[in-house]
Structure formats: C-alpha cells, structure tokens
TrEMBL record, chain A:
Subcellular location, record wording: Cell membrane; Membrane
GO cellular component: plasma membrane
Native organism: Fundidesulfovibrio magnetotacticus
Name recorded for this polypeptide: NADH-quinone oxidoreductase subunit H
Primary location recorded for the protein, binned into one broad class: membrane
Automatic annotation (TrEMBL), chain B:
Organism: Fundidesulfovibrio magnetotacticus
Oligomeric and partner information: NDH-1 is composed of 14 different subunits. Subunits NuoA, H, J, K, L, M, N constitute the membrane sector of the complex.
Name of the gene this protein is made from: nuoI_3
UniProt protein name: NADH-quinone oxidoreductase subunit I
UniProt membrane topology term: Peripheral membrane protein
Enzyme class: translocase
Binding positions ([4Fe-4S] cluster 2): C73, C103, C106, C109
Cofactor note: Binds 2 [4Fe-4S] clusters per subunit.
Length: 331, 146
C-alpha cells in the first residue's frame, strides 16, 4: 500500500472543495438574490420552504431536475448538450488560481491572472454555441448581442487589469494580494501614489464585471421581457439550470477577482488578523452590491451599453493606464 | 469636452442616488401582509354581505319581519319567515336566509330596514367550493358571533 500521488490528492481536494463551494454559491445566491430583492421592495422574499425559505434552492433544483430534457427538432444535439457545460466549466476552472487566503489556493500559478481571463472568455463561446445549437433565430440574435457586449467590456477590463499588473509587477494573484497587505490604504483601490485614478479604475472594473457576467443593468443575454429569455430560450429543465448556475459562478469569480486585484484579498482593512474570513466578507459584500445594483436600475438599451463601454470606459481606462505608466516609469 | 465629463459625473451621481434610495428601502421594515395567516384590518365602513344586528336590550335581533328588505332586494337573494308568539306585539324572526350567490352587495336591504336590524359584516374570505356554502343562515351567524 503506497500513498497516492500528492498531486492527485490536491486535485481531489480542489474538485471537492471548489465544486462544493460553487454549487453552494450558485444555489444560495439565488436565495440571497430573492431575499434581497424582496427587502428592497419591502417584501419578505422566499419564506415557505424551510426556515427563512432556506430550502428553496433545493426545491428549485428538484423541480428543474424533474423536468423532461427536450432537444428541439433539427437542433445540433451535441452542441446543444455541451453548451451548458461550456458555460459552467470555465467558471469552475477560474477558481484554480484564486488565492482565498495566504495558504489556501488550489494552484499558485505565476500566470494566474492570465489563466483566469483565458478561462473566462470560454464562457461567451458556451453561450454562443448553445444559441447556435438550439436552432432558434431569437437565441442566435441574442447570442450575437452577448458576444458583442462581452467583447466591448473585455477591453476596458483588461486595460484596467494591466494597470494593476503594472503597479504590482506580477501576474501571480497570490503576489498581487500579498502586495496589498496591511491596512486599506495599501489596497489598490486607494493606491493614489501610483495613479490618482485608481478608484475610477475600480469602478470601471466593477462595471465591466457586471457586464461580463450578464448582470442587470447589462443583462441583454437574458432580457426575458424583450428577447424570449435570450440565448437559452430553448433550454428546458436542468440545461437551463446549469446556465443559471454558470452565471452565478461567474459572479463569484468576478467578485473574487475584484477582491484580489483591488480590495487586498485576504487582508484586513486595519492590518489585523488577515485570513479567509476577510476574503469572504469582501467577496459577499461585492456580491451584495451586485444584487443591490440589479434591483435598483432598469435594463439599459443595447446602444446605451455599447456607448458606455466605447465612449466612457475604454477612454478612461486608457487614460488611467497612461497616467499610471507615466507616474511609475517616468517620475 | 466639458459636457462629456459633466455627463459622466452627473450619470455617476444619479446612479449613486438611486442606490441610496434602494438601500434605504432595504433596511425599512417589510410591509407584506401574510395573507392566509394574518387577517386584513378592515375599515369600519367596509360593506360586506349583510348580517343581523344584535340588540343588547332584548338579547336577540331587531327584526320585525316586515319583509321590507326582501322587497327592496333587486336580485331576490333574501328570504325570511316569522311567527307571532304569545305576549308579543310584533312578529319574531324564525328564518333569515341570504343567498350570497346572487347578492350584489348593493345594500338596499340595509337602507330599507325600518328598525335598523341589518348591517354590513366585515367578512371577506367568502370563496367556496360548494354553492350551498354561499347560503348563509343569518340567525345562526348572529348566535355564533362573539
């Protein structure tokens, strides 16, 4: 009897831990979303299934799983089936490099940031393939919207991230977070000595995160009142459920990235007791804000969305990049 | 160029103002009424179906079986009977039935009543599966009323 390969153990721990974490989040962010929406509208939200409606996600899951898995006639069966997985997998894989605390990360990759963005771009491919595979004009049109939206918002996001990389001088997410250790005045949001536009950069990143994860007010992908549920119109039961879980998993990835890149990762705002709990507090504060924004603003028009990106976010993020490089390298 | 930055600043400000409003609402108490578990507080002038008025002096209803309500009713949903008892000047009510399937809640019976023996009840949970559940025996309701 020999010990199993430590790499395999690590893989198993990652799969169990992070898939559990993601499944828990995907299920209970739906609950949080409904509760928060309820309280913003001064309602109660789910309350019947279990205490405080806590078993509501379980009930929703059972209902989705009991539905028949129809494939539309003439659809590309393979693409239709594989598309939800293509949305879910990159979200799961992005968690590989995210450092949750000083010692808790599945892999400490030197190119971690690059890996996250590489995985994140597959998400759009999944939506596009799902719409294409379901042989539905409405789905294809709204998938085209998703792609142009994601392309438009990928640019300012990456430019802002390049700024952060220039400040910290590394693509390793662990090092990015570790460089912000200490109080909140060390965080990248407030690193005004590197660039006075850093708070703006954080806002740009946050806006792009909302758009990339197809959240309101940028939820053109599933504008159910205009586009018949958008890119996944034809998906029944758990196929739709997986798309939905993918969306919430992407929110968790986006919020984790915002935490690591701008809010000091696992560091405490006052420099005391850094650790996993601070990461989770920041993570859920961001997710709370994301939901809060969703229930505050109505959906924008598509032109408004593209104009915001090309006319405001991209020029500002480039201005920030130039200013940062000037401050860092010239003076 | 100035207008461009003013637009951005104003837009951002209006977004923050909107979020301030929603977060205020988030922390305010919920106003949902848990309907099947909680009763709606009824306004005093709510006009539900009719009920007999309880007379505290006699300990029974005020009806003198004059049939004015029955005659006033446009949809014919009231039927009542009375009898003359020993030592009484007026008739006493023995049966008062309201067919709520026909009632249009016009209240003409209440206005027609000379002794003010009828009033509007505050009941609103009046959906029923059986037609017979909509035929109310108002004498029984008066006796069962607290």
């Amino acid at each position: 009897m020999t010990m199993p390969d430590p790499e395999l153990l690590r893989l198993g721990a990652y799969l169990l831990g992070f898939i559990g974490f993601i499944a828990f989040n995907a299920a209970y962010l739906v609950w949080l979303e409904r509760k928060e929406a309820g309280h913003i509208q001064r309602r109660i939200g789910p309350k019947e299934v279990g205490p405080y409606g806590l078993f509501q996600p379980v009930a929703d899951g059972l209902k989705l799983m009991s539905k028949q898995l129809l494939v539309p006639e003439g659809a590309d069966r393979f693409l239709f089936r594989v598309a939800p997985v293509l949305v879910m997998t990159p979200a799961v894989m992005s968690f590989v490099t995210i450092p949750y605390s000083d010692s808790l990360a599945a892999r400490n990759l030197d190119l971690g940031l690059l890996a996250v963005f590489a995985f994140a771009s597959v998400n759009v491919l999944g939506l596009l393939l799902g719409a294409w595979g379901s042989r539905n004009k409405y789905a294809v049109i709204s998938a085209a919207r998703v792609v142009s939206q994601n392309v438009a918002y990928e640019i300012p996001m990456l430019v802002v991230v390049v700024t952060v990389v220039m400040i910290t001088g590394t693509l390793n997410l662990h090092e990015v977070a570790a460089a912000q250790a200490g109080g909140f005045w060390h965080w990248n949001v407030l690193r005004l000595s590197a660039s006075p536009l850093m708070p703006v950069a954080f806002l740009i990143f946050f806006t792009c995160m909302l758009a990339e994860t197809n959240r309101a007010p940028f939820d053109m992908a599933e504008a159910e009142s205009e586009l018949i549920a958008g890119a996944f119109t034809e998906y029944p039961g758990m196929g739709f459920g997986v798309f939905f879980m993918g969306e919430y998993a992407n929110i968790v990835v986006g919020a984790s990235l915002a935490t690591v890149l701008f809010l000091g990762g696992w560091g405490c705002p006052f420099g005391l007791f850094p650790g996993l709990h601070w990461f989770l507090i920041k993570l859920y504060a961001i997710i709370f804000t994301v939901i809060w924004i969703r229930w505050t603003f109505p959906r924008t028009t598509f032109y408004g969305l593209l104009n915001l990106s090309w006319q405001v976010l991209i020029p500002l993020s480039f201005a920030n990049l130039i200013l940062t490089s000037a401050l860092l390298k010239v003076w | 160029m100035n207008a461009y930055f003013r637009d951005i600043a104003l837009g951002l400000w209006s977004l923050l103002a909107g979020m301030a409003i929603t977060i205020r609402y988030f922390f305010q108490p919920v106003v949902t009424l848990q309907y099947p578990h909680e009763a709606v507080p009824m306004t005093p002038r709510y006009r539900g179906h009719i009920d007999l008025v309880f007379d505290e002096r006699t300990g029974t209803n005020k009806c003198i079986v004059c049939n004015a309500c029955q005659k006033a009713c446009p949809s014919g949903c009231i039927s009542l009977d009375g009898e003359k008892r020993e030592g009484q000047k007026q008739k006493s009510l023995t049966r008062y039935e309201l067919d709520f399937t026909k009632c249009s809640l016009c209240g003409l019976c209440v206005e027609a009543c000379p002794t003010e023996a009828l009033m509007f009840s505050k009941d609103y949970n009046l959906a029923a599966f059986d037609e017979n559940d909509c035929r109310f025996d108002l004498i029984k309701r008066l006796e069962e009323r607290p």
